Structure formats: structure tokens, C-alpha cells
Amino acid sequence: MYQFDYHRAQTVAEAAELLAANDENKLLAGGQTLIPTLKQRLAMPATLVDIGNIADLNFIKAEGDAITIGAATKHADVASSPDVAKHLPALAHLAAHIGDPAVRNRGTIGGSLANNDPAADYPAAALGLDAKIHTNKRLIDADPYFTGMFETALEEDEIITEVTFPHPEKAAYVKFPNPASRYAMVGVFVAKTAIDIRVAVTGAGADGVFRVKEMEEALGANWSPDSVTGIKVPEDDLLSDLHGAADYRSHLVSVMAGRAVAATM
Fold first, then answer.
1. So what's the pLDDT on residue 1?
2. What is the model's pLDDT at position 247?
3. 3-state SS of the chain?
4. pLDDT > 70: percent of the chain
5. CA distance linking residue 248 with residue 245, whole number of Å
6. Where are the domains of the chain?
7. Average pLDDT score over residue span 110-132
8. pTM for the full model?
9. If pLDDT is split at 50, 70 and 90, which confidence band does 22 have?
10. What's residue 189's pLDDT?
11. Which CATH number fits domain 5-50: 3.40.50.1820, 3.30.43.10, 3.20.20.70, 3.30.70.1340?
12. Which CATH number is 58-263 given?
């Protein structure tokens, strides 16, 4: 690793001040992406600002028709939460299948959404449920939040503080995981809420997580696996790598979407 300073922030305001002090400063939450990046000497921060122990960022609250989760909440805590299991079991299932136990007990929901890895699971849930992403500055809807592979609408000194998910009428997440990393080669989150129907895909898009509007329209007319399994996502905008070619991923999107819909029935 490169030499850097380390500071454990006690409040979000303190973390934001430290982050804004130098463009090279980086936030550390669970560290599941940042630490390997440092080890490979692909990042050279001046200061690591650790926000993992800020109490105000670690919580799960079920209020009204939504669940709000603090940005520093671990995947394992989401997976085991009685409130999440009751109101949003699809999210509990998603969290329980991220990586392995070591990853789930260190990684955080805020870190996952801020990093926006194209194969991460939480972006599919956020986009599929039209989550509201709260920061120290503003509230961002899911659609404009995800702007590309490893890219988001976050400003350089902006910190995710919490994420609000509505209670869906129906929802499910199914993924085809890479057998080594457990990242999604293709993961599909389907949801029917009081407002709309959404189908969000992770692991396949060349620009990261994306919605499949044709599947959403088909499910609006007939909520059944048959409505989506015959719909193919164009290969031009899909990833093609040693783990799977674009045509294979296109096929998997249809299959996983059908399985996700079936899981809600």
C-alpha cells in the first residue's frame, strides 16, 4: 500500500469536512472494495476517513410504508433483521447472498451503493424498488443516481447517510452468481409497488445496473414468468468477458427474470 493518514470520524459532519479538505481523501466504510484497491496500489489517498463506527449511520427503521437503512449497516444485519424479513424479504434474501460470511459482516449498504460495482447486488434492489438515497446534502432518486459503471450522481464531498425502500406489494431477487466471487453474473430484481412495476438488472450491463422497460410493461399486463422469459435484452449494451459472453448474459437475464417473478407467486 501507499502511505496515507487514517482518521476515524465520529460524526457525518466531521467526515464531510475531512473529505472536502483534500480531493485525494477517501471514505472507508466496510472496505470490501477499497482495501483490495489499496493493496493493488490502484488508489493513493492522502487520508482515509473511516465512517464505519458512526452510530448515526448504523440502523434499520421500519416506519409507515417504508424501511430506512443507515449507510454503515452491514449486509449481515440487513439479512438478519426481523423488520426487513417482515416487510421486504426480497432485500433480506439479497443481503444474505452477498459474497461470503466475512464479506457480509464487513461490507455496508452505503459502500456498495457509493461504489456502484456493475456486478453488485444492492444497486439492483435500489433501482428495482425506486429507493431514495439520502446524503449529507440532499435526497437522490434511484433512477438519476446510477450514472454508469462505478459512477453515481454523488459529488466528491457527498456522503450517503441512509437509504429508504418502500414496502412492495411483490418483490424478489434472483441471481446467477460467479462461483468464486459470488458477484452476480446476472441478477434481476423485480418489484411491484403501489406506484409502478420495475425490473432491474445487475451484473450484465456494460454501463452497470439498468431497467428493462419492455419487461416492466409486459408484467403490467400479466404478472407471470411467461411474460418475461421470451423477452431478450439486446447484446450490444451487455458485458462480455471471460466469465460470460454478451449473448449468454442476455439469455440469463430472461431466465433470472422469469425465476424472480415466479418467486413472488
1. 59
2. 97
3. CCCCEEEECCCHHHHHHHHHHCCCCEEECCCCCHHHHHHCCCCCCCEEEECCCCHHHCCEEEECCEEEEECCCEHHHHHHCHHHHHHCHHHHHHHHCCCCHHHHCCCEHHHHHHHCCCCCCHHHHHHHCCCEEEECCCEEEHHHHEEECCEECCCCCCCEEEEEEECCCEEEEEEEECCCCCCEEEEEEEEECCCCEEEEEECCECCCCEECHHHHHHHHHCCCCHHHHCCCCCHHHECCECCECHHHHHHHHHHHHHHHHHHCC
4. 99
5. 5
6. 5-50, 58-263
7. 96
8. 0.94
9. confident
10. 98
11. 3.30.43.10
12. 3.30.465.10
**What residue has cell string 413472488?**
264
Residue with cell 434492489: 125
Map grid coordinates 466471487 to a residue.
181
Report the pLDDT value the prediction gives residue 232, as an integer from 0 to 100: 96
